[in-house]
Write a structure and sequence with these properties.
Largest sheet: 8 strands, parallel
Number of helices: 9
Helix content: 25-40%
Order of helices and strands: EHEHEEHHEHEHEEHEHEH
Strand content: 15-25%
CATH superfamily: Histone deacetylase domain
Structural class: alpha/beta
Number of strands: 10
Mean pLDDT: 97
CATH class: Alpha Beta
Low-confidence stretches: none
CATH topology: Arginase, Chain A
Length: 301
C-alpha cells in the first residue's frame, strides 16, 4: 500500500491569488481520499536545527524572524512570506523524516508526499521560485541517517532544481538527475556541463530539453538514468508543470506520457524505497489528474 502524507497545515502558507496556492494540495487530497486506499503518514514538525544540515543557519533564522520584522517575500515577489509560512515550510521539510522512519520499519516501501511549499529551488543560502526550504534535500539527509547511504534524486519538474543541485553538488553519495526546459526559470543553471564538483563530479546529470517537447523525445531522456550508481533509495521531485495544459512552460507531455514516465521510474527503482514529493503543477485540473495517474501507478507497485 502506498504511504500518503498530507496535513491541513500545508494550507496555512497563505499566498492569495498566486499560482502556488493552497488549492493545489487541497484538490489533490480530495481526489486521493475519494479514489484510493492508502497508508496514512503522520505529519509532525521537527527542530529547525535539522535544516542547518542543508541550509545556512543564518538563512533559516532569517526566515523564522522575517515576517515579524516586516519581510513579506524571499529574494523577489515570486516567493511569498505570510504569518505561518515559516512554520509550514519547516513542517514540510522535516516531516519527511516520518516517511523515512516507515521505510526503515518496512511498514511501507512507496510514498506520495502531498506537501507545500515546494522545495527544489531552495539553495543552501536562499530560497526562491516559490520554495522556502528544500524538502527533497532534507529527506535525502534523513534517509542517509537511517542507513540509506546512497540516495538517487530524480527531478522531472519543468524547471531545473537548482537548489537540490547546489546542496549536493560536491557530494558523491547523492546522485541528482534532472530533466527540464532549457529556456525556462531559473535560466542560468541546469546545463549539461554542470556535472558536479570535487568528490561530486559525475554525480550530477542535467538533461535540458528545448521548447515544445513531446512524449517520445522526453521519455528517451530517461534512458540516461545512471546504471552504475548503486542507490539505496529513490526520491522524486514530482513537478507536474511539464504537462501540456500548463501555462508556464511550452512542454507538451500528455497524461499517457506521464504514466509511462512514472512506470519508468518505478522500474528503475526496483525494490528500493521510493517516494514522490510534490513540486510544481499549477493548472488545477491537470495537476489533480497527474497526481491521480502517479498514485495509481504507485499503487500497483
Amino acid at each position: 500500500m502506498v504511504g500518503y502524507l498530507y496535513d491541513p497545515i500545508f494550507t496555512l502558507h497563505e499566498t492569495g491569488n498566486h499560482i502556488e496556492n493552497k488549492n493545489r494540495v487541497m484538490f489533490i487530497n480530495d481526489m486521493i481520499r475519494s479514489d484510493f486506499s492508502y497508508y496514512p503518514i503522520e505529519v509532525s514538525s521537527y527542530d529547525k536545527r535539522d535544516l542547518y544540515r542543508i541550509h545556512d543557519d543564518s538563512y533559516v533564522d532569517w526566515v523564522e524572524e522575517g515576517y515579524e520584522n516586516g519581510v513579506r517575500m524571499i529574494l523577489n515577489s515570486d516567493t511569498i512570506l505570510s504569518p505561518k509560512s515559516y512554520e509550514v515550510a519547516l513542517t514540510a521539510a522535516t516531516c519527511t523524516k516520518n516517511v523515512i522512519d516507515l521505510f526503515k520499519r518496512k511498514e511501507i516501501n512507496t510514498a506520495f508526499l502531498n506537501l507545500r511549499p515546494p522545495g527544489h529551488h531552495a539553495e543552501r543560502m536562499m530560497g526562491q521560485g516559490f520554495c522556502i526550504f528544500n524538502n527533497v534535500a532534507m529527506m535525502a539527509k534523513y534517509a542517509q541517517d537511517a542507513g540509506y547511504k546512497k540516495v538517487m534524486i530524480i527531478d522531472f519538474d519543468v524547471h531545473h532544481g537548482n537548489g537540490t543541485q547546489d546542496i549536493f553538488y560536491k557530494d558523491d553519495t547523492v546522485f541528482y538527475f534532472s530533466t527540464h526546459e532549457r529556456n525556462n526559470y531559473p535560466y542560468f543553471t541546469g546545463s549539461e556541463e554542470e556535472r558536479g564538483e570535487g568528490r561530486g563530479l559525475g554525480f550530477n546529470l542535467n538533461k535540458p530539453y528545448e521548447d515544445n517537447i513531446e512524449d517520445e523525445e522526453f521519455l528517451a531522456l530517461y534512458e540516461d538514468l545512471p546504471k552504475d550508481f548503486d542507490f539505496d533509495i529513490v526520491l522524486v521531485s514530482a513537478g507536474y508543470d511539464l504537462m501540456k495544459d500548463e501555462a508556464i512552460s511550452s512542454a507538451n507531455i500528455t497524461f499517457a506520457g506521464l504514466e509511462r514516465l512514472v512506470r519508468k521510474i518505478v522500474d528503475f527503482s526496483k525494490d528500493k524505497p521510493l517516494a514522490f514529493l510534490l513540486e510544481g503543477g499549477y493548472n488545477l485540473d491537470s495537476l489533480v489528474k497527474s497526481a491521480e495517474i502517479t498514485f495509481g501507478v504507485l499503487s500497483e507497485r
